[in-house]
């Protein structure tokens, strides 16, 4: 199985801050990476797929980049609704695997 | 509007059987796969397996193979996740998610079903 390591596991930030979350795969995944946001008590919501493609309806403050084994999610200006937990998921090979999550908290 | 609506919360005893459901609407149910994802209390997301509703072909994570069964009834646009003998460690929220065959990411998710297994 491909292991996905997310960092940091948590961070504190303020509204308007720029936030970056990283995800490292145990082997190359050819940009087969998705990012999700999960608010407490809610289902995950797809933000980006194919590492950098923004899902329809997702605000442009979210962006993704990376290649090979290393990928990043950037939130350019953190909004109140962005305080949540973020997960990466590789779908390069089955079984799909998720990172451990990054909890973004209010500073 | 695409929707995946899951069945309600369940409370079961160890050893009991259970089937939960996920009904799709607003799209062609047989054109997308349905995956099931587990989230144990306070923990992260784990992919369990998926099904192609057009022919009921399934693919399981080795971690869940043999412990659960995924099925679908395309006539009523519904996918299922079932257990024959629940354990306390099956206590979790279970999500279904729609996935396109060109990329196994979940673009629409159900609201989740909380399964509690306790004696």
Category from helices, strands and their pairing of chain A: mainly beta
Give the low-pLDDT segments of chain B. none
Net shape of chain A: globular
Number of strands of chain B: 11
What is the overall number of helices of chain B? 0
Mean pLDDT of chain A: 97
Oligomer: heterodimer
Q: What value does the Rg of chain A take, in angstroms?
A: 13 Å
Structural class of chain B: mainly beta
SSE order of chain B in H/E notation? EEEEEEEEEEE
Rg of chain B is 13 Å
Written overview of the protein:
The complex is a heterodimer of chains A (107) and B (119). Chain A is mainly β and 107 residues long. In chain A, 0% of the residues lie in helices and 50% in strands. Chain A has strands spanning 4-7, 10-13, 19-25, 33-38, 45-49, 53-54, 62-67, 70-75, 85-90, 97-98, 102-106. In chain A, the strands form 2 sheets. In chain A, strands 2, 4, 5, 6, 9, 10 and 11 form a 7-stranded mixed sheet that branches. A 4-stranded antiparallel sheet of chain A has the order 1-3-8-7, with no helix packed on it. The mean pLDDT of chain A is 97. Chain B is mainly β and 119 residues long. Chain B is built from no helices and 11 strands. The radius of gyration of chain B is 13 Å and the shape is globular. The A-B interface holds A 1, 32, 34, 36, 38, 43-46, 49-50, 55, 87, 89, 91, 94-101 and B 35, 37, 44-47, 59, 61-63, 95, 97, 103-107, 109-112.
